[in-house]
Amino acid sequence: MAQIIFYILIGLIIFQAIMLVRDVLMHRDDLGPGNWIINGIIGFITDFADTIGIGSFALTTMMLNITKQNKDDRKLPGILNVGHAIPVLTEAVIFVTVIEVDPVTLVTLILAAIVGSWFGSKFVTKLSETAIQKWIGWALLITAILMLLRQTEVIALLGRGNTAMGLTGAKLVIGIVGNFFFGALMTVGVGLYAPCMAMVYMLGMTPLAAFPIMMCSCAGLQPVASINFIREKAYSRKIALAITLGGVPGVIIASQFLMGLDITMITYLVIVIIFYTGIQYILKSRKTIAA
């Protein structure tokens, strides 16, 4: 099963690359704003962080906001999903060959996230700028809270001593439904990693099992979500491509140091920044309404 998923992931990498490059070449005179080097560095840093479990969506949103690379918040969900698709697929290729998870659990949760992302991306591309700002703001706050709970072991406490590498019965159904919603929320900017890891803990699985599940889920859903974002022109081509080009080396390098890397202080710093950025986006949405 790991070999089958491996080849599917390789196929998705090729599909995503063709889809993105084709759109960029067709609109080479309209790539959008942004600096290639700055966005490439953002991709490297955020996908490095993604590989070691911090996540990339909230951090990318924060860095794009600070560097003022993105001029249209309506395109932010598309930038996140299209730009990080290939780096996340690369992560999934690495982890699915290293950590063994029950194949039924792995495949059904991945499919649930993919279906959720399809419905989510069709909904998100129709939202107004004010709605996007509001959803992104709350998405960041939710992500920060879940990360903080995980760091303080409030969530981890529920999973202490868990050894299961798969789900059955009612727990499998809950996992499928949960990953469907997490997949939909990914297209609004809520990273799937933290909620998926929390769910895995609470359903009795070992935390180790979360890595291939969450990474393969994101790897499967982002190319699917990208179809709608690219079709609707709801993303910035230059920013997304630069993030992709910088992100892949970030993933490869991070995977080499993952096991021995202490990220506790870095994660707490990121949580504080994410809280701040989330509040800023919520305030921005209110200003837009007032205007």
UniProtKB/TrEMBL annotation:
Pfam families in the record: TauE (PF01925)
Alphabetical keyword list: Cell membrane, Membrane, Transmembrane, Transmembrane helix
TM annotation in the entry: 6-25, 37-59, 79-99, 106-125, 131-149, 170-194, 239-259, 265-283
Topological type in the membrane: Multi-pass membrane protein
Superkingdom, natural source: Bacteria
Major subcellular location class: membrane
InterPro entries per record: TM_pro_TauE-like (IPR002781)
Subcellular location: Cell membrane; Membrane
Family the entry assigns: Belongs to the 4-toluene sulfonate uptake permease (TSUP) (TC 2.A.102) family.
Listed name of the protein: Probable membrane transporter protein
Species: Enterococcus viikkiensis
